[in-house]
Amino acid sequence: MTPAAPTPAEAAATPAPAVPEPPTSYACTEVGNFLLADGRRFEAQVAALDLGERQSRRNVAGQDISSYMVYIPPQGSKEGADRKAGELKQLGVTNYFIINEGSALRWGISLGVFKSEGGAQNQLASLNRQGVHSARIAPRYSASKQMAYQFRDLDAATRARLEKIKVQFPDQELRSCK
Predict the structure, then answer these.
(1) Measuring CA to CA, which residue among 114, 112, 70, 80 is closest to residue 95?
(2) For a 10 Å CB count at each end of the chain, is N or C smaller?
(3) Cα–Cα distance between 94 and 73 in angstroms, integer?
């Protein structure tokens, strides 16, 4: 005797066998942008994941603040800059430089370059006490070499381990590759 076929209502009520979902895979994950020393520390920790050819490093151009300049904005012409320099002399300011190269600050006046923003703030306060009120502070940038790391075809467990390593580098971003 063969079992009776289920009625349509019984067939609808019977759950279909579960089809296992494929594991989540991440095609390309990038972490960066590291300065050299932090990049090497990150790379040493990631080595434990043993990703071989699925890991690569790429250079990223960046900019870092290298110093701070106290300056008076451009005066429009050499004559304007000379006039402003004369005003500075009358106020007792003798340490200045008229910027004459083809930069955005051409015909401005540099009143000093400082390694720290605090040093620049001190100079600005001193100039204000001398009567110089048009001076400003601007960061000066230098090109830096940064690194980003790319990881391909990660499973969820490996990506979780990568995220755990990345937590030790709070200034870095974990993102999909571009």
Answers:
(1) 112
(2) N
(3) 17
Residue tagged 């434990």 (tokens) = 48
Report which of 120, 146, 122 is spatially closest to residue 67, judged by C-alpha positions: 120
- What's the CA gap between 81 and 73, in Å, rounded? 10
- Name residue 110's beta-bridge partners: 71, 97
Nearest CA-CA partner of 103 in 66, 141, 65, 133: 141
Instruction: Pick the closest to residue 60 from 156, 151, 178 (CA basis).
Output: 178
pLDDT digits (tens, 9 = 90+) for 66-75: 899 999 999 9
Among 117, 151, 133, 167, CA closest to 49: 151
At 15 the pLDDT is 56
d(CA 147, CA 59): 5
Please report the DSSP string for 133-148 in residue order.
-S-EEEEEEEEEEEEE
Percent of the chain at pLDDT > 90 equals 68
Cβ atoms < 10 Å from Cβ of 70: 24
The DSSP string of 97-128 is EE--SSSTTTT-EEEEEESSHHHHHHHHHHHH
The whole-model pTM stands at 0.53
